[in-house]
Design a protein that fits this description.
46% of the residues lie in helices and 13% in strands. The protein is of the alpha+beta class and 261 residues long. It binds zinc ion (ZN). This is C2H2-type domain-containing protein.
Length: 261
C-alpha cells in the first residue's frame, strides 16, 4: 500500500486516488484502464486539478525516471496536464510551492526525453505544452498554436485598437476585422529570425523542432515577430501583446515556482 497522507484541502478527490495510483505503479506500461482512471481523478477532462493532483507529482516523477518508455511518456503527459493547472482555484498553493523541486526534475526528464527523439506524434503537442508548464510559462502552455488556421486577437499597445493577427494559410498579417468586409487594412507581419528570438521564443522554437512540430516552429517566428497596427502604424511584438492581453490571473497569493529561462 502507498503510505500517502493525501492533503484534505481544496476540492477532492481524496480516498479514491491511492488505490488507482497503486494500480498504475504496479503496471505502468500495461494497465491502460488504471491510467484512464488516474487521469479522470487528477486532471478531470484533461483540465481540472486539485491538491491530490499535485501530491501525485512525485510518483509521476519516479515513473518518468523509470526508463520504461511507455510509462515515462504517460507520466510526463499527465504531469504536464497537472502542472498546466497550477493557476486554478485548487486551494493547494502551499503544496505547489513544495513541489517546485519535483517540477524542476520533471522538466529535466522531459527535456531528456525530447532529446532522445522518437516521441510519438500524438504526444508531441502535449509535450510541447508540458515543457512550458514545467518552466512556469503557464499562459503559454495553454495558448493556441494552430498555425494552419491561426488568428490571434490582440489590442494595439498604443491606441488600443483591436487587431486581428493571422498566422496561417490565410496569410500572415495584422488587420482590422470588419464584420462585413473581413480583414481590412492588412499589413504583413515581420517574422523574427531564429537567431534573434529571445530566450522564451527560442526555447519554444527549438522544442517544437525537436518534437517534429515544424509548422509550430515556423509559426513562432511570426508570433514572436513584429506586427503593425492598421490604425496608428506603431509596431509591436505579437507575442508580447498576446501575453499582456491573456495574462493568467492567479487565484491567490504569490507567484508559482518557475525554472526561469
Ligand atoms: Zn494602434
Amino acid at each position: 500500500m502507498i503510505d500517502w497522507q493525501l492533503p484534505r484541502y481544496g476540492r477532492g478527490p481524496y480516498d479514491e486516488v491511492p488505490p488507482v495510483l497503486e494500480r498504475v505503479l504496479r503496471s505502468p506500461s500495461l494497465d491502460e484502464e488504471a491510467w484512464r482512471e488516474l487521469w479522470h481523478l487528477l486532471a478531470t477532462e484533461g483540465l481540472t486539478v486539485s491538491a491530490a493532483s499535485f501530491a501525485a507529482l512525485p510518483y509521476l516523477r519516479d515513473l518518468a525516471r523509470s526508463g520504461e518508455t511507455v510509462a515515462v511518456d504517460r507520466a510526463l503527459e499527465l504531469a504536464g496536464a497537472i502542472v498546466a493547472g497550477v493557476l486554478q482555484d485548487h486551494g493547494a498553493d502551499e503544496l505547489v510551492r513544495e513541489m517546485a523541486p519535483v517540477i524542476a526534475e520533471l522538466r529535466d526528464v522531459l527535456a531528456r526525453r525530447i532529446g532522445d527523439g522518437d516521441v510519438p506524434p500524438r504526444l508531441a503537442v502535449a509535450f510541447f505544452r508540458a515543457d512550458l508548464a514545467f518552466a512556469g510559462a503557464t499562459g503559454w502552455s495553454m495558448a493556441e498554436y494552430d498555425f494552419d488556421d491561426g488568428f490571434y486577437s490582440v489590442s494595439c499597445p498604443h491606441c488600443d485598437l483591436p487587431v486581428t493577427v493571422a498566422i496561417g494559410d490565410y496569410g500572415r498579417y495584422s488587420a482590422y476585422r470588419d464584420w462585413c468586409e473581413g480583414d481590412v487594412r492588412r499589413r504583413p507581419l515581420k517574422p523574427c529570425s531564429v537567431e534573434r528570438l529571445g530566450s522564451l521564443g527560442r526555447r519554444m522554437h527549438d522544442t517544437a523542432r525537436a518534437l517534429g512540430l515544424l509548422r509550430i516552429a515556423e509559426g513562432l517566428t511570426y508570433l514572436f515577430g513584429q506586427a503593425e497596427c492598421p490604425d496608428c502604424a506603431s509596431a509591436f511584438v505579437v507575442a508580447d501583446q498576446y501575453a499582456a492581453d491573456n495574462e493568467p490571473h492567479h487565484s491567490s497569493s504569490g507567484p508559482v515556482p518557475t525554472g526561469g529561462w
